[in-house]
């Protein structure tokens, strides 16, 4: 898969363009089932018209540039992870458009001229609610009317799970609630956080449950505080485990607010400090709690382990 970084005004040579393309366009945070429907429609159009399959996404999140958020933005799929998923979906080319102040003020017509016509795009697919250009004034109807026969347009209607729209907003809500089973339904796969194993305080090892302390990739969305059934990928092998997201109240001063992601890996005793890992989240088991002693904590961890292994054995 080829990744082409673009800015406005972009200076892309004809040699970089390997079109003509069937393009799926959108921010695609999460690359959830609704996004996948858009990409699959673009893929069908590519096959039918003998075009290359391309995806156009944007970085960073528009709200950062438009000043709508003062706090840090957390992504369901940070850019690197998003690109990995798009490659798995057999996309030929990804255009990553840098969302800047100059890009944000482009008129809908300018967007079409620069980022559709100039890139040899012959078919555009997007969701029914996709907007483009300054203040999102361009609609899918506008996109069709501006084509002048240079490209065709496909519109993918709202995708639903039961009565809920499959959307990044609903996935974020479920993540905040710790509802990983619903997240999995909406994404079409387990929620995943990539990271690196770093040194922790090694208390788990002292009580007989050694854990991998995972430093998440910057910008990753952290689920609700609690204990989860997870799988961890390390050194190209998946392992079942139990993950605690929280502040370790049994050991920590309540005034010390240092959120950690710790994974107990079942039947595993390798030294993996510094290793890149991926954590797949399957089920919320319980909330984080403070125990009155080490023995009660160990007993609860053993129960968590049994519950997690039982659940994961059916996944």
Characterize the structure shown.
By secondary structure, the chain is of the alpha/beta class. It has two domains: 156 residues, HUPs (Rossmann fold), CATH 3.40.50; 122 residues, Beta Barrel (Elongation Factor Tu (Ef-tu), domain 3), CATH 2.40.30.30. Helices cover 29% and strands 29% of the residues. It is built from ten helices and 14 strands. The strands form three sheets. It has a six-stranded parallel beta sheet with strand order 1-4-3-2-5-6. A hairpin with a 2-residue loop joins strand 11 and strand 12. The chain is elongated.
List the helices and strands and how they pair.
Elements lengths: L1 E5 L14 E5 L7 H17 L2 E8 L2 H5 L12 H10 L4 E6 L2 H4 L3 H8 L5 E7 L12 H6 L6 E5 L3 E2 L2 E2 L2 H10 L2 H8 L3 E8 L4 H4 L4 E6 L9 E9 L2 E10 L13 E6 L10 E11 L7 H19 L3
Parallel strand pairs: 1-4, 2-3, 2-5, 3-4, 5-6
Antiparallel strand pairs: 7-8, 9-10, 9-14, 10-13, 11-12, 11-14, 12-13
Helix pairs in contact: 7-8
Rounded radius of gyration (Å): 22 Å
Number of domains: 2
Oligomer: single chain
- The first-level CATH class of the largest domain is given as Alpha Beta
Overview features:
6-stranded antiparallel β-barrel; 10 helices; Elongation Factor Tu (Ef-tu), domain 3; alpha/beta; 315 residues; Rossmann fold; 2 domains
